[in-house]
Specification:
Strand content: under 5%
Helix content: 55-70%
Number of domains: 1
Organism: Chenggangzhangella methanolivorans
Number of helices: 5
Radius of gyration: 22 Å
Order of helices and strands: HHHHH
Keywords: Membrane, Transmembrane, Transmembrane helix
Distance between the termini: 68 Å
Shape: elongated
Number of strands: 0
Protein name: Acyltransferase
Transmembrane segments: 20-39, 45-67
Length: 109
């Protein structure tokens, strides 16, 4: 299984650069329960499996493209830890960190 998971032969071009695994993990069970509640007694094992995989993949794709990917982009931009790990050319200087740590000045009338 480890060999198959790390093999380049199983790469799908449509999934390159996308990570739907957390979305499938997160939404799989609730969507299965919703399908059972919405359509009781309709499912055979094969149709239930196909419907739940399709629903969880669709929700995972939506979650990746609308929620996770934009948040990860913001993290690279605003996180000091991410900038430090990116390399010294993008890491904030000591002066920049000191400015970020200072509270904003409040204008008084």
């Amino acid at each position: 299984m480890v060999y198959l998971g790390l093999s380049r032969r199983l790469e799908f071009r449509i999934l390159k650069g996308r990570d739907y695994s957390y979305g499938v993990y997160l939404y799989g069970y609730p969507l299965q329960q919703a399908l059972i509640q919405l359509f009781p007694g309709v499912w055979s094992v094969a149709t239930f499996f196909a419907a739940s995989v399709a629903a969880s993949l669709a929700m995972a794709a939506f979650s990746w493209n609308v929620i996770e990917k934009p948040i990860l982009r913001l993290r690279r931009r605003w996180s000091v830890a991410a900038q430090i790990h990116a390399g010294p050319e993008t890491a904030p200087t000591a002066e920049a960190r000191a400015l970020q740590a200072q509270p904003a000045a409040v204008a008084v009338r």
